[in-house]
Specification:
Elements (H helix, E strand, L loop, with lengths): L4 E6 L4 H12 L4 E8 L3 H11 L3 E4 L13 E4 H10 L4 E4 L7 H9 L3 E4 L3 H16 L4 E3 L2 H9 L8 E8 L17 H4 L9 H9 L1 H14 L6 E5 L5 E7 L4 E5 L5 H9 L13 H4 L16 H7 L4 H18 L5 H14 L8 H19 L5
Parallel strand pairs: 1-2, 1-5, 2-3, 3-4, 5-6, 6-7, 8-9
Antiparallel strand pairs: 8-10, 10-11
Length: 383
C-alpha cells in the first residue's frame, strides 16, 4: 500500500501556492493537502478547501465574510497560522511572501515538520537559527527557489571538501539592456514585466533591482554553509541553467530546466523521490545557444549587498531585508522612484547600528525598528 504525503500549504493563494496546487493536481495519488492559509483571499481559500477536501484553514482577514464548511477547522491570525504550521504532516510548503513566513517556518521545524521553503526572507535574516532548529529536530529545510533547488540537486554533501564554489544565475530582469541614465523614469508597470518568470509583485521588483539575487547569495551562504567568496553570480538571460556547483578537480555540475516552478517544487516536496510530470521538456536544439554576462554593478549596485551581508553580523541582513520590503512597497504604491529603492536601503544600512541578533525575538525587534526608520527616511524620497 502506498501512503500519501500529507502537505500543509502556507500562502495558498500566492504564486508559489498556485504552482503547488497545480503540482498536487498532477499527483493526487501521491499528495494529500491537509492545511492551507491565506491572508485575506478567503473566497479562493474556500474553493481550494472544497476542491482538495482540506480540513484545516487559516486566514487573517475574512474577505466578504466567507463561511466555511462546518467540518473544517478554521484558524485565525498569527496564532492560527502557527497552530496550522505545527500540525503533524509530512512537509510544510512555505510560500508566504516576506518576513511574515519566519515564525510559521520556525514553528513547523520545532514541531518536527520538514519544510519546503520558497520565501527566502526567513533564511536571509534567521538562517542560522532555522538551520539549528532543523538539526535539533532531525528535519530538513528544502529549497524551492529554482537557483537553490538546482544547487541542492548538484551539491554532494559527502564530497563537501571537494567543492570549490557555486554559481547562481540571474536573468538580469526587465532592465538588463536599459541605459542606467533612464532608471529614474522606470514605472511600476515596466518593473513588474519579468522576461522569463511569472511571480508575485514584490519578488518581481526585487528581480528588477537585482536585490533578489543579493538575497539569494545570503540564502545560499546559509543553505550550503559557504562563505562570500565561494558564491558567484552570472547573468544568464535565457534562465535555462539555474545553478552550478564547481568541484576542485575542474568538474562543474549544472542543473538545466525550462523556467517553471512546478519542477523545483516537485523536487523539494517529493524528496528524495522524483516524479514523472507532464511538463514541457528541455530541447537543446530548439534553444540553440545560451548566453552569460558579467553583472553590471554600476547599474545594479544592490547585488553587492549579498556578499557584504555574509561578511557582516546578521543584523546587516535584517536591516537589508526590512528596508527593502518598505521601499518596494512604497514603489509599488507609486510613492517613490525606482532608483529610490536602493537609496533608501543604503541609508538604512549606513545610518543604523545594532548589535548582532542571537534569537528570533532580537531579530524581530531589529526588523521592527528598521522598518520604522525606513518609513521615516522614505518621506524625503516621496514624489
Amino acid at each position: 500500500m502506498t501512503f500519501k504525503k500529507n502537505i500543509i500549504l502556507l500562502g495558498a493563494t500566492g504564486s508559489i501556492g498556485t504552482s503547488t496546487l497545480n503540482l498536487i493536481r498532477h499527483k493526487r495519488e501521491i499528495f494529500n493537502l491537509i492545511g492551507i492559509s491565506a491572508y485575506r483571499k478567503t473566497e479562493e481559500l474556500k474553493l481550494i478547501s472544497e476542491e482538495f477536501n482540506v480540513k484545516n484553514v487559516c486566514f487573517f482577514k475574512n474577505h466578504n465574510d466567507v463561511v466555511f464548511d462546518k467540518n473544517i477547522k478554521v484558524m485565525k491570525g498569527l496564532d492560527g497560522l502557527l497552530e496550522l504550521a505545527s500540525l503533524n504532516c509530512d512537509i510544510v510548503v512555505s510560500g508566504i511572501a516576506g518576513l511574515a513566513g519566519l515564525m510559521p517556518a520556525y514553528e513547523a521545524l520545532k514541531n518536527g515538520n520538514h519544510i519546503a521553503i520558497a520565501n527566502k526572507e526567513p533564511i536571509v535574516v534567521a538562517g542560522n537559527i532555522l538551520k539549528e532548529c532543523s538539526k535539533n529536530n532531525n528535519v530538513k529545510i528544502l529549497p524551492v527557489d529554482s537557483e537553490h533547488n538546482s544547487i541542492f540537486q548538484c551539491f554532494d554533501n559527502n564530497q563537501r571538501e571537494s567543492i570549490s564554489h557555486i554559481t547562481l544565475t540571474a536573468s538580469g530582469g526587465p532592465f538588463l539592456n536599459r541605459p542606467l541614465k533612464s532608471f529614474s523614469n522606470i514605472t511600476v508597470e515596466e518593473a513588474l514585466k519579468h522576461p522569463n518568470w511569472e511571480m508575485g509583485k514584490k519578488i518581481s521588483i526585487d528581480s528588477a533591482t537585482l536585490i533578489n539575487k543579493a538575497l539569494e547569495v545570503i540564502e545560499a551562504g546559509h543553505f550550503f554553509e559557504l562563505n562570500a567568496n565561494q558564491i558567484q553570480v552570472v547573468i544568464h538571460p535565457e534562465s535555462i541553467i539555474h545553478g552550478l556547483v564547481h568541484y576542485k578537480d575542474g568538474s562543474v555540475l549544472a542543473n538545466l530546466a525550462l523556467p517553471d516552478m512546478i519542477s523545483p517544487l516537485s523536487v523539494a516536496i517529493g524528496y528524495p523521490e522524483r516524479y514523472n510530470l507532464n511538463l514541457a521538456k528541455l530541447n537543446l536544439l530548439e534553444i540553440s545557444q545560451l548566453n552569460f554576462l558579467k553583472a553590471d554593478l554600476k547599474k545594479f549596485p544592490g547585488l553587492n549587498f549579498g556578499w557584504h551581508a555574509l561578511n557582516e553580523p546578521n543584523n546587516f541582513s535584517i536591516v537589508l531585508n526590512a528596508s527593502n520590503e518598505i521601499a518596494v512597497d512604497l514603489f509599488l504604491k507609486k510613492r517613490i522612484k525606482f532608483t529610490s529603492i536602493l537609496e533608501i536601503i543604503d541609508k538604512c544600512l549606513n545610518e543604523q547600528k545594532f548589535s548582532s541578533a542571537n534569537n528570533l525575538e532580537e531579530i524581530l525587534e531589529i526588523d521592527k525598528m528598521s522598518r520604522i526608520f525606513a518609513k521615516k527616511i522614505s518621506e524625503k524620497f516621496y514624489v
